[in-house]
């Protein structure tokens, strides 16, 4: 059914249809509406969820961990400082292999204080052992939430589904919502193999691991993350078969015959598609690769798709301040190096604190790419878009 | 981007500029169009100048940047004209619709705008139709007329459905709002 | 417990089967040893409640002695045993 929903409404609706056993959350801009709308669903009796109002995001994730370990299907939502406050609990959720879902609305981190959309918060959690799915728009946010449940429970790993703060979270768009019964059928029942409320099969969870076992458990986590790639693709294939919307590790837009391309995540990819179309109309072979799965990072698949290009620009909506370039850039350049591809790749850091990125700015990036493709050289590997001198 | 219509709403915090853009987006969807509706967020203060935006198209919209060169501007509060550059980025092929008791000719002179200027006394219509000077529903009617992109009956039907959910015990509010949309649609004038 | 499991054999997610503490003989950590005198014992169960290692042996609803395989010799039982009874006293562990 076609319906107008903001990103936050779409994610809250997905949560309603998933009907999790427990939601523990502490509201924060711009994700506030997700739990606000969801708590109304709880109050109205539209879901069976136990809603736990907590005093901080640290407590929210702690309560989620407890509930998930007990055997419940668990979700929460947060953003920015909230995700940062969850930091130590994120690693615990992943280490205990609990399939918790976060509806995460990307927002800048303080300081300076800012409420708008960039990827700094999510990127801070990129090595916490959580699967990370980025969404371009409300539709993808909704679809990713539904798929996240299946991915998390099969991989035994937590998943964060992200949208861009305000740009998507507060933008009303047309989305195609599935029926409640279709979603119920797709996500299925949660039947954990082991859970703490299974009193007939007691076990200890989260015991101390010193030099003797810690490394083995972390190795298991790394392996689980690696194996989750296939699970993500299988769930996407089933989603496509059931509902006719295609998902994978990434979306390619006019990439196969492209000579130059931009790689970017989230809402900017939508704007970039318009620019690609305009350039194509002028006979310029431009393309786009939009990673959807940032963790596990599909390094080989992405390298293979970029290998034929004459020049690539990687756009990062967050900075690392000391690594060489933004997080997406370092992933892609290292992926290309490992897979022994050599092509000019440049980095553009943009949109921090919600700074607008428009079609003109993206056209300028493509102009740079045309130069790099012709000269086979890179003048400035790391660039900043739209920042005043 | 000629196949996308971009609209900017000017209002004051608490006046319903965001609600108007979202209602308009939903109404546009109901008539079969693709839409976006989004507010500009800053510190939220009652009475401060605020903006909200719409994109409309026959095709899915993937653009997610801000709107700086709108095709249409809607001004909910005429007192904003003195403090806000409401025609900023508005092309001369575009149009501005103002809630005012003044004439289009007067406003055109005041704004020093070469494109089309439309006026409608939406506050008065709102007061007459449903007893409160909240101009956003009649302004939707005026906008439908000026943009000439949506079908007015579809917009009225959808708005009625939305209001029926919210004001189920006050049918006079619902009918008053619908009447105000049609009245503004019929009465908006410009040059 | 001799062979350490590899990452492929370990249960996933920092899980340990219940009851494994029983296999750890922590009794040899002891330097002081509680000695139980059944004749003085008034069966108040205060030692049993307080023992952090569940090392007070109970049979047929009565305290009958100390589980020396797991008692670490902390002395809480002797300290908590009511003064009028003093059924548990601490002695040097003979090595």
Question: Which stretches of chain B are poorly predicted, pLDDT < 50 over at least 5 residues?
Answer: none
Series of secondary-structure elements of chain A, N-terminal to C-terminal = EHEHEHEHHEHEHEEHEHEEHEEHEHEHE
Overall average residue pLDDT of chain B: 92
CATH topology of chain B: Pyruvate-ferredoxin Oxidoreductase, domain 3
Helix content of chain B: 25-40%
Query: Order of helices and strands of chain B, N to C?
Result: EHEEEEHEHHHHE
Short description:
The complex is a heterotrimer of chains A (389), B (191) and C (95). Chain A is α/β, with parallel strands linked by helices.
Write the layout of secondary structure elements.
The complex is a heterotrimer of chains A (389), B (191) and C (95).
Chain A (H helix, E strand, L loop, with lengths): L1 E4 L1 H12 L3 E4 L6 H12 L6 E4 L3 H14 L3 E6 H6 L1 H9 L5 E6 L13 H5 L6 E4 L3 H18 L3 E6 L7 E5 L3 H8 L15 E3 L8 H30 L6 E4 L6 E4 L4 H14 L4 E6 L1 E3 L3 H8 L4 E6 L10 H12 L6 E5 L9 H17 L6 E3 L5
Parallel strand pairs in A: 2-3, 2-4, 4-5, 5-7, 6-7, 11-12, 11-14, 14-15, 15-16
Antiparallel strand pairs in A: 1-8, 6-13, 10-12
Helix pairs in contact in A: 1-2, 1-7, 3-5, 7-9, 10-13, 11-12
Chain B lengths: L3 E9 L4 H14 L3 E6 L9 E9 L14 E4 L19 E5 L4 H8 L4 E5 L1 H9 L5 H12 L4 H15 L4 H17 L1 E2 L1
Parallel strand pairs in B: 1-4, 4-5, 5-6
Antiparallel strand pairs in B: 1-3, 2-3, 6-7
Chain C lengths: L14 E3 L14 E5 L9 H5 L5 E4 L2 E5 L9 H5 L7 E5 L3
Antiparallel strand pairs in C: 2-5, 3-4
Structure explained in plain terms:
The complex is a heterotrimer of chains A (389), B (191) and C (95). With 389 residues, chain A is α/β, with parallel strands linked by helices. Chain A is built from 13 helices and 16 strands. Chain A has two domains: 2-190 and 202-240, 3-Layer(aba) Sandwich (Rossmann fold); 250-384, Rossmann fold, CATH 3.40.50.920. In chain A, 42% of the residues lie in helices and 19% in strands. In chain A, the strands form three sheets. Chain A has a seven-stranded mixed beta sheet, with helices on both faces. Chain A has a six-stranded mixed beta sheet with strand order 10-12-11-14-15-16, sandwiched between helices. In chain A, strands 1-8 form a two-stranded antiparallel sheet. The relative contact order of chain A is 0.11. The model of chain A has no long low-confidence stretch (mean pLDDT 97). Helix content of chain B is 39%, strand content 21%. Chain B has helices spanning 17-30, 104-111, 122-130, 136-147, 152-166, 171-187, and strands at residues 4-12, 34-39, 49-57, 72-75, 95-99, 116-120, 189-190. The longest helix of chain B is centred in the last third of the chain and has 17 residues, at 171-187. With 95 residues, chain C is α+β, with helices and mostly antiparallel strands. Chain C has a single domain (26-92), classed as Alpha-Beta Plaits. Chain C is 11% helix and 23% strand. Chain C has two helices and five strands, in the order ββαββαβ. The model of chain C has no long low-confidence stretch (mean pLDDT 92). The A-B interface holds A 2-4, 30, 115-116, 136-137, 164, 166-168, 170-174, 267-271, 273-274, 356-359 and B 1, 21-22, 25-26, 29, 34-39, 41, 60-66, 68. β8 (172-176) of chain A pairs antiparallel with β2 of chain B.
